[in-house]
Amino acid sequence: MATLGVIADDLTGATDIAIALTSAGHRTAVVLGEGVPLGGAAADADALVVALKSRTAPVGEAVAASLEALDRLRAAGCERFYVKYCSTFDSTPEGNIGPVCEAVLEALGEEATVIAPAFPANGRTVYRGHLFVGDDLLEESPMRHHPLTPMTDSSLVRLLEPQVSRGKDDIALVPWPVVSRGADAVRAALTRAAAGGARFAVVDALSDDDLDVLARAASGLRLLTGGSALARWLPGPHPVGHLPLTPPEGPRVVLSGSASRATQGQVRHALAAGSGHRLVPGDLRADFDGTVARAAEAALRAPADAPFVVYATAAPEHVVDAADAPLIEEALAETAVRLVAAGVRALLVAGGETSGAVVGRLGVGPLAVGPEVDPGVAWMLARTEDSGGGDDLRLMLKSGNFGREDLFVRAWEEGA
Ligand SMILES: Nc1ncnc2c1ncn2[C@@H]1O[C@H](COP(=O)(O)OP(=O)(O)O)[C@@H](O)[C@H]1O
Ligand SMILES: O=C(O)[C@@H](O)C(=O)COP(=O)(O)O
């Protein structure tokens, strides 16, 4: 019976935290979408992750979807909860992170929680409440150019302030000098913050050791919020249990809708090692079906020992107009449907929104965690609807900024 329930605001974020929880000793299932019964997945899992597509949704819809997910997780027996958002705190200007955390906290009748996006293994650290991406402040990182959620401020306190109903008084900072003194010091700081009326404590973290400290300090909290890295420090009842997945036969197709800098490098690397097809919004507007058919046919004809990338953006000069984003998502989803119908059994999808669109169209059941290839990136096993297990798909759903440059080549070689 699952005891830990996670509400994730996008699909790559959901697989990211499922990988972390599996490493921590939780048998973990990712359930896709709103309103999907958790029954079957809950029976064999210690942790359940509900993958929403709420990051860029209007605030009211994001809150409603998150509360509905919370209800399902509680009905499935979960007693402790985690709101998973992006390690770069991606949100729209109105901001869904604050309203969702506040709504879940209130629904649980709890007083306080932590805000912990840090993911040190992927270069996301928090110091004095400022989020860094590698050597840069968030606002100076490539995230300032994200097509859907451009991040132009690095202060978590400032970002959160307009998103929570009580404003500044609702937010406290537990700075690194306190974290460096250990779990007792952090626990005392969290208690003081809550007693002072702050329901949200932003906690600095420069390393995984800091997150270990935070996890121990927050052991009494029923709700945690953050990126995935804090979840690696929540010990589960079972030893590490990634599924061993064997490499699939057939084309090595990557569907990339991510415009993030890491993905652009990965696309260019894969194009040099293999081949690909660029989706241009104008072509899709002129002839959607024909353009998608050409991409899928080229992927099916590609040599099976090298990656084939269907991509929207591979270089900064490729113009990204947010108005075209749904068209690109739809085209990649339709390409995936055609490939799977033609017998392809493994797909690597780059981009959180893109993964949500692709997997939503494929109509797959719960995802189980396979081998981690880079921090936060793993092959997942998905049951297709009515497959009876015979048509299982292997999916790697890659967050835009995750993975080393050779990921699209290595993923197929390190076991799928
Ligand atoms: N050339 C392009 N023109 C318009 N939209 C694009 C282009 N390239 C990517 N996009 C859109 O940008 C969004 C990227 O978001 P996402 O898939 O979450 O990637 P990431 O994980 O990098 O944030 C998607 O909605 C995608 O359709
Ligand atoms: O926490 C993270 O960075 C990821 O799990 C995540 O949510 C990334 O989202 P996308 O970049 O949109 O894939």
From TrEMBL:
Keywords: ATP-binding, Carbohydrate metabolism, Kinase, Nucleotide-binding, Transferase. It comes from the Bacteria. Residues 253-408 form the Four-carbon acid sugar kinase nucleotide binding domain. The keyword Kinase applies. It catalyses: 3-dehydro-D-erythronate + ATP = 3-dehydro-4-O-phospho-D-erythronate + ADP + H(+); 3-dehydro-L-erythronate + ATP = 3-dehydro-4-O-phospho-L-erythronate + ADP + H(+). Residues 4-232 form the Four-carbon acid sugar kinase N-terminal domain. This is 3-oxo-tetronate kinase. It comes from Nocardiopsis changdeensis. The lineage of its organism: Bacteria, Bacillati, Actinomycetota, Actinomycetes, Streptosporangiales.
